[in-house]
Protein backbone atom coordinates (compact mmCIF):
# COMPACT_ATOMS: atom_id res chain seq x y z
CA UNK A 1 0.00 0.00 0.00
CA UNK A 2 1.12 3.55 -0.64
CA UNK A 3 2.25 5.23 2.55
CA UNK A 4 1.11 8.84 2.62
CA UNK A 5 3.73 11.53 2.84
CA UNK A 6 3.17 15.22 3.32
CA UNK A 7 3.80 15.89 -0.36
CA UNK A 8 4.11 14.41 -3.83
CA UNK A 9 7.77 15.43 -3.70
CA UNK A 10 8.36 13.02 -0.82
CA UNK A 11 6.23 10.27 -2.37
CA UNK A 12 7.64 10.41 -5.92
CA UNK A 13 11.05 8.79 -5.29
CA UNK A 14 9.36 6.03 -3.25
CA UNK A 15 7.49 4.94 -6.41
CA UNK A 16 10.74 4.19 -8.22
CA UNK A 17 11.09 0.42 -8.42
CA UNK A 18 7.36 -0.14 -7.88
CA UNK A 19 5.49 -2.47 -10.24
CA UNK A 20 2.65 -1.05 -12.33
CA UNK A 21 0.52 -3.71 -14.03
CA UNK A 22 -2.42 -3.81 -16.41
CA UNK A 23 -3.38 -7.27 -17.61
CA UNK A 24 -0.46 -9.31 -18.93
CA UNK A 25 2.00 -6.38 -18.98
CA UNK A 26 3.90 -5.24 -15.90
CA UNK A 27 6.71 -2.73 -15.62
CA UNK A 28 9.09 -1.42 -13.02
CA UNK A 29 8.67 2.35 -12.63
CA UNK A 30 11.95 4.09 -13.47
CA UNK A 31 10.96 7.77 -13.79
CA UNK A 32 8.35 9.99 -12.11
CA UNK A 33 7.44 13.65 -11.61
CA UNK A 34 5.81 15.25 -8.58
CA UNK A 35 2.89 17.69 -8.87
CA UNK A 36 1.83 19.53 -5.71
CA UNK A 37 -1.81 20.37 -6.44
CA UNK A 38 -3.05 23.87 -5.64
CA UNK A 39 0.46 24.90 -4.51
CA UNK A 40 1.98 24.08 -7.91
CA UNK A 41 1.22 26.19 -11.02
CA UNK A 42 2.24 23.24 -13.25
CA UNK A 43 -0.36 20.93 -11.67
CA UNK A 44 -3.75 20.22 -13.26
CA UNK A 45 -5.22 20.87 -9.79
CA UNK A 46 -3.68 24.34 -9.41
CA UNK A 47 -6.95 26.21 -10.05
CA UNK A 48 -9.05 23.84 -7.93
CA UNK A 49 -11.39 20.93 -8.66
CA UNK A 50 -12.85 20.41 -12.14
CA UNK A 51 -14.52 17.47 -13.87
CA UNK A 52 -11.14 16.64 -15.46
CA UNK A 53 -9.12 16.52 -12.22
CA UNK A 54 -11.77 15.46 -9.64
CA UNK A 55 -10.04 12.15 -8.81
CA UNK A 56 -6.96 14.10 -7.70
CA UNK A 57 -9.02 15.62 -4.87
CA UNK A 58 -10.25 12.21 -3.74
CA UNK A 59 -8.49 9.63 -1.60
CA UNK A 60 -4.92 8.53 -2.37
CA UNK A 61 -4.05 5.38 -4.28
CA UNK A 62 -6.20 6.10 -7.33
CA UNK A 63 -5.16 6.59 -10.95
CA UNK A 64 -5.53 10.07 -12.45
CA UNK A 65 -5.49 9.82 -16.25
CA UNK A 66 -5.56 12.62 -18.76
CA UNK A 67 -5.16 12.91 -22.51
CA UNK A 68 -2.40 15.00 -24.07
CA UNK A 69 -1.42 15.19 -27.75
CA UNK A 70 -3.52 12.09 -28.43
CA UNK A 71 -1.82 10.06 -25.67
CA UNK A 72 -3.10 9.00 -22.27
CA UNK A 73 -0.86 9.87 -19.30
CA UNK A 74 -1.30 8.44 -15.79
CA UNK A 75 -0.60 9.70 -12.29
CA UNK A 76 -0.81 8.16 -8.84
CA UNK A 77 -2.87 10.29 -6.45
CA UNK A 78 -0.82 10.39 -3.26
CA UNK A 79 -2.18 13.12 -0.99
CA UNK A 80 -4.88 13.06 1.66
CA UNK A 81 -8.40 13.64 0.38
CA UNK A 82 -8.92 17.26 -0.67
CA UNK A 83 -5.23 18.05 -1.25
CA UNK A 84 -4.81 16.88 -4.90
CA UNK A 85 -1.09 16.05 -5.09
CA UNK A 86 -0.14 13.36 -7.60
CA UNK A 87 2.89 11.73 -9.21
CA UNK A 88 3.12 11.38 -13.00
CA UNK A 89 4.53 8.02 -14.08
CA UNK A 90 6.98 8.99 -16.84
CA UNK A 91 8.84 5.79 -17.71
CA UNK A 92 9.35 2.14 -16.86
CA UNK A 93 11.12 -1.06 -17.80
CA UNK A 94 8.84 -3.88 -19.01
CA UNK A 95 9.20 -6.86 -16.67
CA UNK A 96 6.34 -9.12 -17.86
CA UNK A 97 4.32 -9.33 -21.06
CA UNK A 98 7.07 -7.94 -23.26
CA UNK A 99 5.60 -9.58 -26.39
CA UNK A 100 2.29 -7.76 -25.82
CA UNK A 101 4.14 -4.48 -25.19
CA UNK A 102 6.15 -5.01 -28.39
CA UNK A 103 2.92 -5.48 -30.37
CA UNK A 104 1.52 -2.24 -28.93
CA UNK A 105 4.76 -0.35 -29.64
CA UNK A 106 5.92 -2.05 -32.86
CA UNK A 107 9.42 -1.23 -34.08
CA UNK A 108 10.66 0.25 -30.79
CA UNK A 109 13.73 -0.96 -28.87
CA UNK A 110 12.86 -2.93 -25.74
CA UNK A 111 14.49 -0.32 -23.48
CA UNK A 112 12.18 2.33 -24.97
CA UNK A 113 8.86 0.45 -24.94
CA UNK A 114 7.65 2.47 -21.90
CA UNK A 115 9.92 5.52 -22.24
CA UNK A 116 7.82 8.66 -21.83
CA UNK A 117 4.36 8.92 -20.25
CA UNK A 118 2.31 8.33 -23.43
CA UNK A 119 4.48 5.40 -24.52
CA UNK A 120 4.24 3.90 -21.04
CA UNK A 121 0.43 3.85 -21.05
CA UNK A 122 0.36 2.50 -24.61
CA UNK A 123 2.74 -0.36 -23.69
CA UNK A 124 0.62 -1.19 -20.63
CA UNK A 125 -2.73 -0.70 -22.38
CA UNK A 126 -3.88 2.04 -19.98
CA UNK A 127 -6.58 4.29 -21.47
CA UNK A 128 -8.90 7.03 -20.24
CA UNK A 129 -11.31 4.24 -19.25
CA UNK A 130 -8.87 3.52 -16.36
CA UNK A 131 -9.44 7.00 -14.86
CA UNK A 132 -10.07 6.71 -11.12
CA UNK A 133 -8.99 3.07 -10.79
CA UNK A 134 -8.20 2.08 -7.18
CA UNK A 135 -4.63 0.83 -7.61
CA UNK A 136 -4.50 -1.24 -4.42
CA UNK A 137 -7.98 -2.83 -4.60
CA UNK A 138 -8.26 -6.56 -5.19
CA UNK A 139 -9.26 -7.25 -8.78
CA UNK A 140 -8.46 -3.77 -10.14
CA UNK A 141 -7.68 -3.52 -13.84
CA UNK A 142 -4.52 -1.53 -13.00
CA UNK A 143 -2.48 -2.34 -9.92
CA UNK A 144 0.51 -0.84 -8.17
CA UNK A 145 2.84 -2.88 -5.96
CA UNK A 146 5.33 -0.90 -3.92
CA UNK A 147 8.96 -2.05 -3.99
CA UNK A 148 10.35 -4.07 -1.11
CA UNK A 149 13.67 -2.20 -1.32
CA UNK A 150 14.33 1.43 -2.16
CA UNK A 151 16.33 2.26 -5.27
CA UNK A 152 19.94 2.92 -4.23
CA UNK A 153 20.79 5.60 -6.80
CA UNK A 154 18.04 8.14 -7.48
CA UNK A 155 18.71 11.20 -9.62
CA UNK A 156 16.56 14.33 -9.71
CA UNK A 157 16.20 17.36 -11.92
CA UNK A 158 13.71 19.73 -13.57
CA UNK A 159 10.36 18.46 -14.78
CA UNK A 160 9.86 17.79 -18.48
CA UNK A 161 7.47 19.66 -20.76
CA UNK A 162 5.92 22.07 -18.26
CA UNK A 163 5.95 25.79 -18.86
CA UNK A 164 5.30 26.91 -15.28
CA UNK A 165 7.48 25.99 -12.31
CA UNK A 166 9.71 24.19 -14.83
CA UNK A 167 12.84 24.80 -12.78
CA UNK A 168 11.61 22.73 -9.81
CA UNK A 169 13.78 19.59 -9.40
CA UNK A 170 10.70 17.39 -8.95
CA UNK A 171 11.54 14.78 -11.58
CA UNK A 172 13.11 11.63 -10.13
CA UNK A 173 14.61 8.66 -11.96
CA UNK A 174 16.70 5.55 -11.48
CA UNK A 175 20.26 6.68 -12.23
CA UNK A 176 21.73 5.01 -15.31
CA UNK A 177 18.45 3.33 -16.35
CA UNK A 178 18.04 3.15 -20.17
CA UNK A 179 14.24 3.40 -20.07
CA UNK A 180 14.31 6.94 -18.61
CA UNK A 181 13.02 9.56 -21.05
CA UNK A 182 15.23 12.22 -22.55
CA UNK A 183 15.06 15.65 -20.93
CA UNK A 184 13.29 18.21 -23.11
CA UNK A 185 13.11 21.73 -21.83
CA UNK A 186 9.72 23.40 -22.17
CA UNK A 187 8.98 26.88 -23.45
CA UNK A 188 8.83 29.21 -20.45
CA UNK A 189 5.67 31.28 -19.98
CA UNK A 190 6.01 34.73 -18.48
CA UNK A 191 3.31 36.00 -16.12
TrEMBL record:
Pfam families: Pur_DNA_glyco. The keyword Cytoplasm does not apply. SUPFAM superfamilies: FMT C-terminal domain-like. Its EC number is 3.2.2.-. HAMAP family: 3MGH. PANTHER family: DNA-3-METHYLADENINE GLYCOSYLASE. This is Putative 3-methyladenine DNA glycosylase.
